[in-house]
Specification:
Largest sheet: 7 strands, mixed
Bound molecules: NADP nicotinamide-adenine-dinucleotide phosphate
Oligomer: single chain
Structural class: alpha/beta
Number of strands: 15
Shape: globular
């Protein structure tokens, strides 16, 4: 039985991408388990754009990670010892494990962990992807904020990423014409050929705005926005009267100055409803959404894909992959 718990702690706030001085490797003894506690070994980290936001000293929806604190991260872990009435050895849990190899579940912190059911057709990584925060974000963002109607045109940015790839498939399930914007031809091919998007536009091609216009001949009714800046502007310029803009994320501004929009005027001209949302607002409905997502997965209506980076030591650099577009589907680190 190992005795050391390796942890990545925040040492310096990043100014751009994650440089080697931002997270510091540290070691502490694996915690001992008291009554009412359980010890879990972390198997996977979910790598999320919001981690870069958590590192920054800016106004945000959770407190920023403090200097010297174990880096906050979602993960999936397996209970290896338990004196907690709700967990037994071998149970799998997901929650805020932090960037560390072992996590102690205490009675007070129990609400941050969800015991995972064992379902034959679902693998562990599904619980960080389709049935985790990713799938839930896509579900509530599109269905509750975007309110898609059959026959409408939905455009989603970062479309081959974790959230965007689910949003597009949910749009198809609800009868929309779905157009994805992504950063490579390989990504565009995947969302079109494998996921069934109606069209895909590579925003790195010089004529991508003309391609977007051609792919949205009837304009855009719903913009599911993951990127912001020039990508968002191009979609806003194609919006129909009374369209909806679901502001899920603005990743183009997380590692550098938010590029903002060249013009917000389309919001007035087209009488758009622009609404931001946070997945945390829907916690009480996670079970309902998880059941639907699970059924769609089981019946082949939803597909998922992961980019898996192996090794605890590679976790900090994995965060940068999100900002370089190196992932297809959900980015996960396997310990
Ligand atoms: N509101 C919420 O509750 C909530 C919850 C979860 C996630 N989010 C947001 O949802 C968005 C997607 O998150 P995710 O976890 O699903 O990540 P992801 O899409 O799997 O990965 C991020 C993708 O963004 C694209 N990207 C990065 N920088 C870009 C830039 N400057 N311009 C254009 N595209 C860029 C890259 O793909 P390309 O190759 O296509 O560039 C990259 O693969 C993020 O903005 C995140 O903050 C919000």
């Amino acid at each position: 039985m190992p005795t050391i718990n390796r942890q990545w702690k925040l040492a310096n706030r990043p100014t751009g991408l994650i440089t080697p001085d931002v997270l510091q490797l540290s070691e502490s003894p694996i915690p001992t388990v008291s009554d009412g506690q359980a010890l879990a070994r972390v198997k996977y980290f979910s790598i999320d754009p919001t981690m870069r936001v958590w590192m920054a000293d800016v106004a945000q929806y959770m407190p920023a990670v403090t200097i010297g604190e174990v880096m906050r991260a979602f993960g999936l872990a397996e209970i290896i010892e338990s004196r907690h009435p709700d967990f037994k050895k071998g149970d799998k849990v997901s929650g805020l494990t932090g960037f560390q190899e072992y996590v102690l579940l205490t009675a007070a912190g129990k609400q941050f962990f969800q015991k995972l059911p064992s379902i034959p057709f679902l693998s562990d990584v599904n619980f960080l992807n389709l049935l985790g925060v990713t799938g839930l974000t896509a579900y509530f963002g599109l269905l509750e904020v975007g309110k898609p109607q059959s026959g409408e045109t939905l455009v989603v940015s970062a479309a081959a990423g974790a959230t965007g790839s689910v949003v597009g498939q949910l749009g198809k399930i609800h009868g929309c014409r779905v157009v994805g914007i992504a950063g490579s031809d390989e990504k565009c091919k995947w969302i079109k050929d494998d996921l069934g998007f109606d069209a895909a536009v590579n925003y790195k091609h010089p004529d991508w705005k003309q391609q977007l216009a051609a792919a949205t001949p009837k304009g855009v009714d719903i913009n599911f926005e993951n990127v912001g800046g020039e990508v968002m502007q191009a979609v806003l310029d194609r919006m129909n009267l009374h369209g909806r803009v679901v502001v899920c994320g603005l990743i183009s501004g997380y590692t550098k100055q938010d590029p903002g929009l060249a013009s917000f005027a389309q919001v007035i001209v087209k009488r758009l409803r622009v609404e931001g949302f946070l997945i945390l607002d829907y916690v009480s409905r996670f079970m309902e959404a998880g059941q639907k997502l699970g059924i769609w997965k089981m019946t082949g209506k939803l597909k998922s894909r992961e980019t898996i980076v192996k090794g605890f030591e590679n976790a900090p650099e994995a965060i940068n992959m999100l900002f370089r577009g190196d992932n297809i589907g959900k980015l996960i680190v396997e310990l």
